[in-house]
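Need tokens for this chain, all 659 residues.
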Amino acid sequence: MAKINILSEEICNRIAAGEVIDRPYSAVKEMIENSLDAGATEIEIYIERGGKDLVRVVDNGSGIEKDDMRAAFFSHATSKIATVEDIDKITTLGFRGEALATIAAISKVELVSATEGNGAYKVECDGEYIGKVEPAAFEKGTSITMRNIFFNTPVRLKFLKTDKKEETDITSFVTRYILCNPRVAFRYYADGKLILQSYGGGLEEAVAQVYGASFLSQCFKISADRNDIKIYGFIGNQNFFKPNKSYQNIFLNGRCIVNNVISSAISQAYAPYAMKRNYPVYVLFVDVPSDIVDVNVHPNKTDVRFVDNQLIYGTVYKVISSVLDGTTKAADFVIENSRVPEIQSTFADSSSKNAVYAADFSQSSKVYDKNFDDVKMPVFKPDGSISVKKDEQIGGIVPEVRQESVFERMERRGAEPQSIEQLPLHRVFPQVSQPNRMRVCSGIASQDIAASVENENAERLEQQKISYESWKYKGELFNTYLLYEYADEVYIIDQHAAHERLIYDKLMEKLRARQSVARQGMLIPYILDLNASESAFISEHLQLIRSMGFDIEPFGACAYRVNEVPLDLQNINLADFFAELLHDTDNLKSIKLEDVLREKIAMTACKHAVKGGMALTDAEKDKLIEMMKGDTGLKCPHGRPVCVKLTKYQIEKMFKRIV
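Here are the structure tokens for all 659 residues:
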């Protein structure tokens, strides 16, 4: 009896759907790409419940002929390629003929379309049967409506994310298509609310709509043509970075991609300027001949392969690094731009998107250079990953740059007190004048904070404590280290580390013990501008952030307004604080906000502690030792020891009195 079964077309489509359409954002992606291939200049996207209940894409493209409407639902049915040779010179976003067939296999779909000068027709498909072609009311273009995704595959439905997270992923994709197609007008609605809109007025207008006009003022507008590779768009300047990679956009031949070769070249170019955990921002277009790139790698078409990785890497690296380093060739690549574009109120009329938006950068001069001897290339592994030797220079620049710590930056930038009297040891903060607005909010910071403090205190109870009243002061070294003698031991105390730890303990104790957090009103509220994924993350953790003592509220589609901060952290740098919170949102990792708050408290303690090199009075030295209560096992919040002990035996051994 035969054991090998020939699968039916229905089963094949159901299996293929797992590759092409794995979540609602995949369906949105495929629909938008079909609209762009049809020459649409206006596209509207509607979703409900993160695309689980509804995804609808409407365009004004060329439409589908009546006789082709049922065939559009068949597997591998496409108008974009006809012969084997066509695969080697693909210029459209879609070409496999899988998208609509797989969408129809796992959802209920309605297709409505009308071509120029003809009436409109519709076809419905419920995941198994394709209906008849019937007359419909529609002007010109195509409307595809998908309802109840994965209704017939409940196992896959269970693994979808929450409605808000699915919506966030769709928003991120729509954002990229707005940037990638600046001559196309987009309107994007989620649950009836307009989320994003662009007017087809060009790249500057699209970037301003997505990221705000201030984004442009911190970017270089570049255009370069080297080795038949055209590179153009916006890259952040040497001081413009973000805490995550969600502001990085690469478009290859008009296609949104994620490619390790190009992204690594850009990262290496920014390496000398980027601080730790900061990432460059860019909206970068790369156009290459179709015969040196393979887009037929995966059904999702987001990854590509190049015939010559070294050539692509070297070209991108040389252009970006030249602009950032200000070399003589930078003048050939940088275009003076208007920074803040005037928003257009009408839609563009162009139907050839690639030709038009590339024309925006026609001012660049062409440079042909096959010589990359001055660029030492990284090693491209068989799996597509890249490795660079730490001691290898790229373009004369050593990628590995020592990054100063956040505490070093604080001490370097902060205004140090002129004398210790300006920062008495018996109090943590200077006295605060009566604020314009101050109130106490209900709730304590997280229980995890209290638990961590209790664990730390329990460890400290096990540390050796001595009677500090019996210590004998023997002097100081370098206005930083205090020397005390006790029995046959000498204790060397770092005055800055000791005071820093004492301040930190006091602040953490407040969070642990109090049932409310005092807030300090801000004279001018702080506006936090975010992208879609960052906004979703803040929205998800909004109550926890408020429980810490921040009065924060939505302020527009992807922005929040901070009105009040915790009183104990009134001098906090809000930009750095939220950058730390948003560091890993692109990977949707779980971030413990309590740990970030703990770090900010440590920074506050560091800022307000006495500094090394500051001369203390005798009374201040006594007060510091009294506050330590003989706890010699203390460490500062970032791990440095407060006290070092030397025994008489150790000292005599140093001087060879004991062999």
